[in-house]
Amino acid sequence: MAEPIKVLLVDDHQVVRRGLRTFLEVQDDIEVVGEAADGAEGVARAEELRPDVVLMDIKMPGTDGIDALRGLRELGNRARVLIVTSFTEQRTVVPALRAGAAGYVYKDVDPDALAGAIRSVHAGHILLQPEVADALLSQEESSGGHGRGSALTEREREVLGLIADGRSNREIARALVLSEKTVKTHVSNILMKLDLSDRTQAALWAVRHGMAG
Fold first, then answer.
1. DSSP letters for 197-210
2. Packing angle between helix 154-164 and helix 169-176, nearest 10 degrees?
3. Would you call 55 helix, strand, or coil by DSSP?
4. Is the pTM of this model over 0.85?
5. pLDDT tens string 102-149
């Protein structure tokens, strides 16, 4: 049996954390390994516990979710971060995704949908509502990203298409019969050539320019 997905809950409201934990404890393949009440504590706990997925609120006192996301990325923490937000906070979702979040769900999410979202981001997928994807793509286009694809090699375009399909480096390596080290090099080159900061932006770029599978 596969190891359960380790989840860290980061929210300043205890009742929200308790509700999320209640949702998740009935799932055989998900284990809540810890909680944190603000972004700074969340970063520290993520470094200590090394969860697979972090459920992160955006608005918290002190260090908010976006700053916490940046902190995790600066530390090289590989946890996938799923933003848990209220509908009225949607305008803050785009900065969170740019800071490295893998997607988001609303606080009134159905328990089964929440569990599915956790499994999805853990598998390498990106969860976006259409309006948020459009906002991200509009920002990318306004920064002059449209013509950068011509700098990609054919192999890099293949790798980019698989990134857009939510494949991990290991899965890309298997699909293209390459080493994981070579795939990592291709990913780094893609991000550099397209002037993007992470795989989320790369996947969006690929979708926008018709390179997704």
1. SSHHHHHHHHHHTT
2. 130
3. strand
4. no
5. 888 888 888 888 999 999 889 888 777 666 666 665 655 555 554 556
